[in-house]
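Input record (one chain):
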Amino acid sequence: MRYFLIGWLAFISAGCSVTGKQPALHDFGLPVSAAIQQGRASITVNAPTWLWDNRIRYRLLFASPSQVRFYGLDRWIASPPELFEQLLSSSGKAQGYTLIIRLQDFEQQFDASDRARVVLRFSAVAHSADDNQAIATQEFHLEQATKTPDAAGAISGFTDLTQQAAGKIQDWFKGLSERRE
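The corresponding structure, as predicted from the sequence alone:
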């Protein structure tokens, strides 16, 4: 009887985890249809293998800085490189250029249990759209404190940070255009 009760409790608890809450899916707030309709620029985002995962990454720098962790109930709707490429393509900010981006960092970092920031680091190579020659390379490193030290803070922070990145790329292109004239 005792083993039956233990088995029954294990079955019920396993059933609860199977029917438990499903992860919420997030993007940067841009409708997919707008990205498809407006995506005129030739932009490619490359990244290391581990960044092609749709889980939201974070790191506890104060406790275990070498361990990468993931939120269990929040995920990106696609991988960060795909979402970043979609955002940049739909913004129209790379018109006149072919842009190749190498995403290097895209994670939330906790300096303390109540203090976190999001980090976005990438390099960009601009090629002329007409002859596809490399014109310039630029490194970008952006970070921003999150409003809250949790998944919601990471999502909100990355939405803001990717918008800032698009603006910085546009400013970089303006500088390139001025030099070409």
